[in-house]
Write a structure and sequence with these properties.
Layout (H helix, E strand, L loop, with lengths): L10 E2 L7 E2 L4 E2 L2 E2 L4 H29 L11 E6 L4 H9 L6 E12 L2 E13 L5 E9 L10 H29 L3 H5 L2 E5 L7 H11 L1 H6 L2 H12 L4 H10 L4 H26 L6 H6 L1 E5 L8 H4 L2
Antiparallel strand pairs: 1-2, 3-4, 5-6, 6-7, 7-8, 9-10
Helix pairs in contact: 3-5, 3-7, 7-9, 8-9
Organism: Ensifer adhaerens
Protein name: RDD family membrane protein YckC
């Protein structure tokens, strides 16, 4: 189904773009098109452009201020086999191998531009067979090779570090929509974001829309710290013991929470992003909550048959 923006029955509005406004998501008995492929391509373009610009800014800041955050600078992780120290001996003793199984223990160092940032102990157990499976325990260690205790402040820092890039992405998109009614990706694919009444979105409303759009990504920032916190809350206090239990004992409290944390956020993302497009009603969930629509720009007169059938 193709609906040309210029052929829709608009309500006259002197303060709206082109003097018209959308009455609601269903106009004249027809549901506004979803522009699925345009929206997807626009999101990819916006994400790539944002990352490139943010990475350049981050590099400049780090060069000028070595202590500056490295949110958008790629990290490198190098791993090497660990010697049979106390950790390895304990794992071999308390997590024994069954026939046909093998284990690899490594020390992995994460660094930014050659500057070490953190060290982790990684032990992977491989089950042999037609379809080999792996189970891994991974925890941060200090310079002496001892497990780093879980602290609420450190978990909070991890959440903050995960949230900042997403929030910056939302704010940049909101600023562009409030100023131009579109983003570079949307402009490239002839899309605009307007309020339900046809007016331009103010920054606050655009920020709300962008934050709601990226809500699954924001919640996902809590998943890893949430699972670590569950270990600290429900475990014995022995990090290594709790990690081994969570990996090997199905049904342990820690395992249940870790499994829930690993499933809830992806399922929510599917419901939030994909389901509304499959069961299209004229708006996505976040557009409905924000009181806005995505429409074709005035210069876009036609829609491809493939997009119209999406």
């Amino acid at each position: 189904m193709h609906i040309d923006e210029h052929n829709l029955p608009w309500k006259q509005c002197n303060h709206c773009p082109h003097g018209r406004s959308i009455m609601n998501s269903t106009v004249a008995g027809s549901i506004l098109p979803r522009f699925f492929w345009r929206r997807l391509a626009a999101f990819v373009v916006d994400t790539l452009l944002f990352y490139i610009v943010a990475a350049i800014v981050s590099i400049v800041l780090v060069v000028a201020l070595p202590w500056a955050p490295r949110y958008f600078i790629p990290s490198m992780t190098a791993c090497e086999p660990t010697a049979p120290d106390a950790l390895v001996q304990r794992i071999e003793r308390e997590w024994p191998l069954a026939p046909g199984q093998s284990r690899v223990s490594q020390i992995c160092t994460t660094s930014f531009w050659g500057v070490a940032d953190s060290r982790s102990f990684v032990s992977t157990l491989v089950d042999a067979g037609d379809n080999p499976t792996q189970r891994t325990i991974n925890f941060e260690i200090d310079e002496a090779g001892n497990p780093v205790e879980l602290e609420a402040m450190r978990l909070g820092t991890e959440v903050f570090d995960e949230l900042v890039p997403v929030l910056l992405f939302c704010l940049s998109g909101a600023a562009l929509i409030a100023r131009f009614g579109t983003t570079p990706g949307k402009k490239l694919f002839a899309l605009r974001v307007i309020a339900d009444n046809g007016e331009a979105l103010p920054f606050a409303k655009a920020a709300k829309r962008e934050a709601l759009r990226m809500l699954p990504a924001m919640l996902d920032a809590f998943s890893a710290p949430f699972m670590l916190l569950s270990i600290a809350s429900f475990g014995s206090g022995d990090i290594l013991r709790d990690l081994m239990d969570a990996t090997t004992i199905l049904g342990a409290p820690v395992q249940i929470i870790m499994l829930a944390g690993g499933l809830i956020f992806p399922l929510f993302a599917i419901v939030w992003w994909v389901l509304p497009l499959l069961r299209w009603r004229g708006q996505t969930i976040y557009d409905h909550l924000s009181g806005c629509h995505v429409i074709l720009s005035p210069r876009a007169q036609t829609t491809s048959p493939a997009e119209a059938a999406a």
